[in-house]
């Protein structure tokens, strides 16, 4: 769905607090959202390391992505820096990587693949409000990383001040995913990790996108595998969860119930194949620009 950049209406402003990361929303649902954000950045860093080592001629990427994601899903907060250095960067960077930009998945595309049903691309300017956000709940990252990932507090304060002054130019724009405590950066994608590393709130203009209510969804376990699907209670259409170990706790914390199990057969095989294909598409088609 295309993005609508309306600017003719006045925006409302919420009172702003600042400084330390907000201490609210510390429940299980918010923690599940943080796990999802963390996994996204680990995938970004893994892809970035591979691009820098192999350039765009990475012939083993599709083969390796499923096993790698399975590993990071089980331990989403681990630091992969040393592992990536040893296994992908080697003694020097590949000649293929010359001029290759830093790599990250487009935040909006990532969310749509990981949380089926999320619709976050359009908004009305009158619905946009100015807020401070906990960056651990914001999915950012972009392919051309113009912002360093480590900035001093004064520099971050200046960035926030610039955002507030930008008015309807929306220097930083995020979509909230329905009623979830989870946000997707559209403008200002580069800066999110700098605020995250500094544990500082990030000023952004926020609007609320669409996401089905928990009573409109149902989870389905595929017997004999780790595959999980989600269905719409109205249409019954099944969509596989490509990152089940982080998506399932998020959806159950949101209140989505478990439905019938899916036994062995064509449907189970189709869903398992769809998960692998979804992961490959995630890392080959959703590079941000």
Strand segment count: 9
- What proportion strand? 5-15%
Describe the main β-sheet briefly: 6 strands, mixed
**What would you report as the Rg, rounded to the nearest angstrom?**
19 Å
- Contiguous helical run count: 8
- Global morphology: globular
Structural class by sheet pairing and helices: alpha/beta
User: What is the average per-residue confidence, as pLDDT, rounded to a whole number?
Assistant: 79
Helix % is 25-40%
Tally of separate domains:
2
Taking the alpha carbons of the first and last residues, their distance comes to: 17 Å
Order of helices and strands: EHHHHEEHEEHEEEEHH
Low-confidence stretches: 1-25, 90-100
Order of strands, widest sheet: 1-2-6-4-5-3
């Amino acid at each position: 769905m295309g993005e609508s950049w309306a600017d003719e209406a006045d925006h409302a402003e919420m009172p702003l607090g600042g400084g330390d990361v907000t201490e609210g929303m510390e429940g299980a649902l918010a923690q599940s959202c943080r796990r999802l954000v963390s996994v996204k950045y680990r995938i970004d860093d893994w892809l970035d390391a591979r691009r820098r080592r192999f350039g765009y001629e990475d012939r083993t990427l599709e083969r390796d992505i499923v096993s790698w994601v399975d590993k990071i899903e089980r331990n989403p907060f681990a630091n992969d820096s040393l592992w990536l250095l040893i296994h992908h960067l080697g003694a020097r960077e590949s000649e293929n990587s010359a001029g290759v930009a830093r790599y990250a998945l487009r935040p909006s595309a990532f969310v749509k693949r990981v949380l089926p049903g999320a619709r976050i691309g359009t908004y009305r300017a009158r619905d946009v409000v100015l807020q401070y956000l906990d960056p651990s709940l914001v999915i950012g990252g972009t392919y051309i990383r113009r912002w360093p990932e480590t900035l001093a507090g004064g520099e971050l304060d200046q960035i926030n001040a610039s955002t507030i002054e930008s008015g309807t130019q929306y220097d930083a724009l995020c979509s909230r995913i329905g009623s979830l405590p989870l946000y997707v950066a559209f403008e200002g994608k580069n800066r999110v990790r700098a605020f995250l590393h500094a544990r500082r709130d990030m000023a952004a203009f926020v609007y609320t996108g669409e996401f089905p209510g928990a009573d409109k969804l149902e989870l389905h376990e595929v017997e004999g595998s780790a595959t999980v699907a989600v269905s719409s209670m109205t249409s019954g259409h099944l969509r596989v969860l490509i990152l089940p170990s982080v998506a399932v706790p998020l959806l159950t914390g949101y209140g989505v119930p478990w439905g019938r199990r899916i036994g062995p057969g064509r449907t189970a095989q189709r869903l398992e194949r769809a998960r692998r294909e979804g992961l490959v598409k995630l890392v080959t088609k959703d590079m941000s620009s």
